[in-house]
Specification:
Strand content: 35-45%
Order of helices and strands: EHHEEEEEEH
Structural class: alpha+beta
CATH architecture: 2-Layer Sandwich
CATH superfamily: START domain
Number of strands: 7
CATH topology: Alpha-D-Glucose-1,6-Bisphosphate, Chain A, domain 4
Shape: globular
Number of domains: 1
Strand order of the largest sheet: 1-7-6-5-4-3-2
CATH class: Alpha Beta
Distance between the termini: 43 Å
Largest sheet: 7 strands, antiparallel
């Protein structure tokens, strides 16, 4: 099993960052492994489910998950599973910082990758998560600049 830790800062209010993070229908806008999510309301409580299609190492697969912790506006955690036997446990912690929000994500993961070198997989996952975090920050900051 692998683990990746991500840290970032978004120049946007914590409520806006949280609202964006809990809306699965927007995940494909920033998460490089999300192909599409089935339409649903934003996640609102522990036990809420989501489903969609994800991409990993060139393969597209169905994925579904469930919220395991939700403390507005500071914490969201969920587990996601795929039929290939892999899973991801995400925990995102948000903290107000100046005029924006610090974001810390810890992702524990396990993927069925056969004979592929684990070190390669870990580097690939870290690169995908770093790019997703960069995308998330850019989009949520851009939305924070939009007039309401």
């Amino acid at each position: 099993m692998g683990q990746a830790k991500l840290y970032g800062h978004a120049e946007a209010p914590i409520e806006r960052v949280f609202d964006y993070a809990i809306d699965p229908t927007r995940w494909a806008e920033w998460n490089v492994s999300t192909v599409e999510m089935k339409p649903r309301a934003p996640l609102a409580k522990v036990g809420d489910h989501f489903a969609g299609k994800s991409k990993f190492m060139g393969q597209i697969f169905e994925e579904e998950g469930e919220v395991t912790q939700l403390e507005r506006p500071n914490v969201i955690a969920f587990v996601a599973n795929s039929p290939t036997g892999g899973h991801e446990n995400w925990t995102a912690r948000l903290t107000p910082a100046g005029t924006g929000t610090d974001v810390e994500c810890v992702v524990d993961y396990e993927y069925a990758t056969g004979d592929i070198d684990k070190g390669f997989v870990d580097r690939l996952v870290k690169q995908m998560l770093d790019q997703s975090m960069d995308n998330f920050k850019v989009i949520v900051e851009q939305e924070a600049l939009q007039p309401v």
